[in-house]
Amino acid sequence: MVLEKKCKKMKKDFGESADLTIRRAEIGGRRAFYAAIEGLVDKELLEEHVIKPLSAIETFSRGSVEKGVYLTAPVEWASTLAEAEEEIASGTVALVIEGEEKICLLSVKKWERRSVEEPPTSSVIKGPREGFTEDVTVNAALLRRRLKSKSLVITEKKVGKYTGSKVLICYLSDVASPETVDLVTERLAEIDLDGVIDSSYLTKFLEDDPASLFPQVGSYEKPDVVAAKLLEGRVAILSDGSPIALTVPHLLIESFQDSQDYFKRNTRVTVTRFLRLFGAIIALFLPAAFVAVQEYQYQVLPLKFLITIINSTNGTPLSPTLEMLLVLIIFDILNEASVRMPRYVGMALSIVGAIVLGETAVSAGLLSSPAVLVTALSSIGLYLVPDDVGTYSLLRLLFVATAALLGLLGILFAVMLLLSHLVTLESFGSDYLSPYAPLSAGDLKDGFVKRELPDMVKRPQGVSNRNPTRIRNRKPLATRLGEEENGDEN
């Protein structure tokens, strides 16, 4: 195919796109042209280190366009025009030379990228503040900075028919289970969709039970957190264009843990984790219990408390069930609206919705003040476990519905169904309720009750790994204290 035909074919394949730039040139007496996508190429680097040196060549030879002879930019060769076009779409410059079957590919990529900064959803008081960006290469480098070991293996996959998104699988070769790595690779290889815009597109293809309300794939925006997960034997997935890294396997206990927990005193962390658990219990069961008590089991309340509730709800036109469902739905509507509105307008909307609207509805007698109070407490409890807000928000509606049908017995029945689902749920071979079901005594050191870091000699048994020892030549604190006491007695 002659030079002009290749040029016309390339323009046609790109649909005469306005951002496809074609630049004619002559290299050592041969006609040629450069093809690139505007905005993805460093123009100064292309001009100074590629075009000017090649234009000065008097006699063309294949070696004259190799890196190190006249060029400093990385050079590769594409065998077909289609292969070269794929590289052009990724930001590579293609150099088509008359008489050459192969096409020269020059890497002078440059595009606008966000700087490394603290992620807005994972701000911390103590600890590292760096967050991932949308550039997967930068994200991989952030992991390398923390895990300076040849054991850190990063493999690449291309996912998406049109996006061709680069997806990186990261793991420690001497820590992560080979079965987990193979399973992640296999599931990614089976993905066949038009494009991957964000890493969240991959979660439903990776999860063991996509229909479950509970996430079986962790999502994090901070490289220090992901590095800690890799050290425990997990596998991380980075997707180009997304600042969120995925980790597998993911356990329920991880929703109650925070990166700052490992930079604080263990007594404070233990109290905080139980507060998160208590907040989740309030979020799930308080509205349902309020409905059940009003509809069926009002006798379980103390008399004075019961009289207060009756006086507050007297004259309300709606039944306790409809009232609670209405307040919960209104809260979800306000929450969704505040998220989608501009930041400052969203703050004003939250104030208007939470204070003005609620106070007006109570004053008008449309809603009772106990129902608004219960919803407020439940909603605050939701955000103690921010990663599962959507899951708990839906579950509390289901609990309210069962409480309306069967009272406290309905709540108990719903809890049994929920626990039976969680017990059978797995994430890449790990039990979702580990270390509590099945009970793993060694992993309890980093459960709701957190022990000191020197006591965590072994890696979590609930996560498959090939190297269970995390701290070598280190005895647990209790053993060392016992030995010291025995030594003093002797």
What proportion of the residues form beta strands (DSSP E)?
5-15%
Helix percentage: 40-55%
> Which stretches are low in confidence, meaning pLDDT under 50 for 5 or more residues running?
none
Global mean pLDDT:
84
Q: Could you give the order of strands across the largest sheet?
A: 1-2-4-5-3
Instruction: Give the structural class.
Output: alpha+beta
Q: Compute the separation of the termini in Å.
A: 92 Å
Alpha-carbon Rg, integer? 30 Å
- Total strand count, please? 12
- What is the domain total for the residues? 3
The number of helices is 15
Gist of the model:
The chain folds into three domains: 3-106, no CATH class; 136-250, no CATH class; 268-427, no CATH class. The chain has helices at 3-13, 43-55, 81-89, 136-146, 178-189, 200-206, 223-231, 266-295, 303-313, 320-340, 343-363, 369-382, 389-406, 408-424, 477-489, and strands at residues 20-27, 30-37, 75-78, 93-97, 103-106, 152-159, 165-172, 218-220, 235-239, 245-248, 426-427, 430-431.
